[in-house]
Amino acid sequence: MNEPLLTIDGLRVSFTSDRSSREVLHGISLSVERGKVLALVGESGSGKSVTGLTTMGLLPKQAVVTEGTIRFRGQDITRHVPRSLRGAGIAMVFQNPRAALNPTRRVRDQLADVIRAHDRLDRAALQARLVELMHQVSITDVSRCLNAYPHQLSGGLCQRIVIAMAVACSPDLIIADEPTTGLDVLTQKSAMDLLLRLTREQDMGMILVTHDLGMAAQYSDDVAVMRHGEIVERGTPEMLFSNPQNNYTRRLVAACPNETSLLEAPEDAAARQESGPAVLLEVRNLVKEYQSGFRAVDDVSFSIRQGECLGLIGESGSGKSTISRLISRLVDVDSGEILFNGTSISSLSAEDFYRAPQRRQIQFVFQDAAGSLNPRYTAFRSIVDPLLRMGPVPEGDALAELVVQTARSVGLSEDMLERYPHQMSGGQCARVGIARAIIVSPDLLILDEPTAALDVLVQAEVLALLERLRRERGMSYLFVSHDLHVVRMLCDRAIILRKGRIVEAGRCENIFHAPQSNYTAQLLEAIPHFRPAACV
Amino acid sequence: MSAEKHLLPPLVRRIGLRLGAALPALFCVILFTFIMMRVLPGDPAVYFASGPNAGQAEIQELRHKMGLDAPMPVQFLHYLENLVTGDLGRSLTTGQSVARDMQERLPASLELTLTALALSLLISLPLGLTAAWWSGSKYDQFVRAFCSACFCIPPFVSGILLVYVCYYWLGLAPDPTGRINIFLPQPPRLTGLLLIDSALAGDWTAWHEAAGQLVLPATTMALFVIAPLTRMTRAAVISVLGADYIRTARAMGLPTWRIMIVYTLRNALMPVLTTVGIVFSTMMGANVLVEKIFSWPGVASYALDALVSSDYAPVQGFILLMACLFILVNLVIDLLLGVLDPRVSVE
After folding, report:
1. What is the CA radius of gyration of chain A?
2. What pairing do the DSSP bridges indicate for beta strands A6-16 and A75-76?
3. For a FRET experiment, which of A195, A472, B63, B197 has its CA 20 to 30 Å from that of A225?
4. CB-CB: which of A86, A102, A166 is closest to B245?
5. At what angle are helices A123-136 and A155-167 packed, to 10 degrees?
6. Residue A533 — pLDDT band, cuts 50, 70, 90?
7. CA end-to-end distance (rounded Å), chain A
8. What is the ipTM of this complex?
9. pLDDT tens digits for B181-217?
10. Cβ neighbours of A230 (radius 10 Å)
11. GO molecular function terms here (chain A) (predicted)?
């Protein structure tokens, strides 16, 4: 029993098509022990998910293992993972829990499907096992959850169900592929704590695939950093993050926002604070109620000064997206007032707002950078479009000149402009999204989680870009995010929202160093972080 | 049981809303067909006058008797008034009231169409599912070729071919004349669908006879719609196969048949069901060729005969019937979608 639970040795995987073959894993070797967590860290496309899928035997048809072996409990599973092993020996927890569950089948039946695929149980035993599972994943409302369809449950509950599915047949190894992407910090913490507890209790091994260095540091015993299909560095999290040897790891660690990272010199921020420019946007007692009587936004007031960046923080369902839509006037206000430059814009209906002069002054950068671009538009067309619609359109060559100039200011080279969204990376799409918003020189930019889908290195670049644009153009930002570190880096002041109400508001350094409300303290506590200094 | 209590009131309301929303459309259909029938060339009075030598006076009198000399709006109001009381007019060809003709002939058309639909689904669903499962394979290519072949051959050709091969040449099928051997005692009429009526009466000789008569025309019709249904199933299954929950099911080691049927086909059924609604309506209309070939006493051939002889009432009645059927079928499909997909009923 000296052999580790899982050993991967010199694994090479290629994606082949009729014409070409591309190797995506260039000889990966790693091992997982019982009761231990191995984190695979890297940017998207680094091969960390492919490693997980290969182990699971779930590679798409066009991918083949060309070399190397995978051994699980001493058995060679490189090219074929027996069905009895999937679920009962190795189980997987996927990202986007709601999509990972069958939408037309009750949770009870889906869990029962998994159990019955590996075990013959009679009705009573099955029911007992289901209840036991629910308790294991700390679900208290057992019968409601079992009888519900996935869409009737929150993202956090769905993730618990997915975890319950994974542990249903007591596997020895769990592969968690970005298990908390799309969940907010508090839910993320409880899901991860749960996974870790189950791993330790049941003496399982776990492979945690993630792009979040903080999470890797907090929840793993070993970390392997991957890049371009290779493991560039591995070691314990303390070693790796406090004293990274590899150049790439060093860059990753540096780019990862933590409680001390800053974008600009502190004196700049202080200087801006003292000048006290005019108020650009004022929101008074904003209320938005949905038909079901649910108050998404409940009596919210705040203001943004010229050139200021205000952070809006909250978990999913806290109303932060609704507020950003209300201010950008995509949604109608139920009561309350929005003053922009002293004029009320809340009385105009959302349908007519595109005709208002304020339309071009308030612009939006959307969360899903690639998805919010028209797939049939080139980058040029996407960037120029708002200008053509809202004017004033410069004459002749000046138009193309302006687009190129704007693209350059967001760090897009000229040859990028002829590309379509699918030909660009996530970071490049994000830049197009920003260029499209700033080409009409707005006064207020609303940024709805613009970096949520980006890798840390790209995120760092985009944040630096946003900061530079704000200084150069004097724009104000409303920055919506659930990432507290990112908000602290970019924003002067922040608002913490919960259930449509403001829990706490104030200057960022005060909120982060001396939170007034319990909830804020909880949020801060829940962020997984590595403390390079404290680790040594 | 508690689910039912929550389900019923919105369900009833939805049915009501849908039927209410269909009324303006129905009115337009009535108006349109009414005008079309009168704009088209052909004068029923001339057609039905006692003979080719009938005098102008006789035709004029006939016209007056039929109400054709009144201004069109008056005729239309008169027609509406009759409709409300359930009177669809009288067919000049058969001499019976249109409502009665329809009542006699609609079950024949329905029985044929429903059987053909069931048959085509029985073939299309497995074919589409397996083609998608092994998409890109030789088998998938074969299914594609088969569908194209089915779709290319028009029903009147395939119908005649089938009659030639199965009846004339091999002698397997009964003679293609009508729904049931007229010399056989007819089962008591309950639904008008012979298969159901004879089964209810326990008359299995009649059932076999009727089923035998049904095989060829139903196959002819089914062949025509196998292509769209199979292609739709294949496309829907392929998109479902890419979903995250299929990957989850695989990762959890579920048996392949369960992933195929319960996880894939079940979720792919919704677009297929919508297509079924459209296909069914097309089939009801396209019935006419098949009904003609097999001397099937259905509504479509009845309407065609009436159209040829400028017999207004049956044509108008037929189109109205088709419109109502279309609305009903779509309503049923809509409700079925709600049953199939729990997310629909929530919204």
Report:
1. 25
2. unpaired
3. A195
4. A102
5. 120
6. very low
7. 33
8. 0.77
9. 666 777 777 787 888 888 888 888 888 888 888 888 9
10. 14
11. ATP binding; ATP hydrolysis activity
User: Tokens representing B289?
Assistant: 């060729």
With tokens 């304020």, the residue in question is A358
* A149 with B266: Cβ contact below 8 A: no
Residues 6+ apart with CB under 8 A from A54: A11, A13, A25, A63, A65, A70
In sequence order, what are the beta bridge partners of B216? none
| Farthest CA pair distance, chain B | 86
- Predicted local confidence at residue B197, as pLDDT: 85
In chain B, which residues have their Cβ closer than 8 Å to the Cβ of A290? none
Confidence of residue B170 (pLDDT cuts 50, 70, 90): confident
Structure tokens at A82: 């027996």
The whole-chain average pLDDT of chain B stands at 84
Higher pLDDT: B4 or A311? It is A311
Q: Any CB–CB contact under 8 A between A288 and chain B?
A: no
Distance CA(A166)–CA(A97), nearest Å, equals 12
B111 contacts: CB under 8 Å, gap ≥ 6: B179, B192, B193, B194, B195, B214
What is the end-to-end Cα distance of chain B in Å, rounded? 21
CA distance B306 to A419: 61
Mean pLDDT of A465-473: 87
Q: Tell me the C-alpha distance between B112 and A343, whole Å.
A: 69
| Range A1-13 average pLDDT | 84
Answer yes or no: do A102 and B251 touch at CB < 8 A: no
Secondary structure of residue A170 in the 3-state scheme: coil
Residue found under tokens 């008591």: B188
C-alpha Rg value of chain B to the nearest Å: 24
**Per-residue pLDDT at B96 exceeds 90:** no
Residue in chain B closest to A52 (alpha carbons) equals B251
Contact B263 A83 (CB under 8 A): no
Transcribe B197-239 into DSSP letters. Answer: HHHHHT-HHHHHHHHHHHHHHHHHHHHHHHHHHHHHHHHHHHH
pLDDT above 60: residue B3: no
Residue that is written with structure tokens 């070729």 in the block: B145
* CB-based contact, A102 to chain B, within 8 Å: yes
Helix and strand numbers (H, E) in chain B are 15, 0
- In order of A238, A267, A296, A337, B316, the CA distances from A282 in angstroms are 46, 26, 19, 8, 64
| Structure tokens, A452 | 């949520």
pLDDT above 70 for A148? yes
pTM listed for this prediction: 0.79
Question: What pLDDT, on the 0 to 100 scale, is given for residue A263?
Answer: 65
Locate B318 and state its tokens. Answer: 């037929």
pLDDT tier at A262, thresholds 50, 70, 90: low
Q: Name the helix (H) or strand (E) containing B301.
A: helix B299-308
Chain A contact for B208, CB < 8 A? no
Chosen for mutation from A50, A54, A104 (greatest number of chain B CBs closer than 10 Å) is A104
Amino acid at B211: A
- The residues, ordered by sequence, that sit 6+ positions from A170 with a Cβ below 8 Å of its Cβ are A88, A202
- pLDDT, tens only, A369-420: 888 899 899 999 999 999 888 877 888 888 889 999 899 888 888 888 888 8
Residue ranges with strand state E in A62-144: 63-72, 75-76, 90-93
Pair B129, B233: CB distance under 8 Å = yes
Beta bridge partners of A225: A41, A233
d(CA A71, CA A89): 12
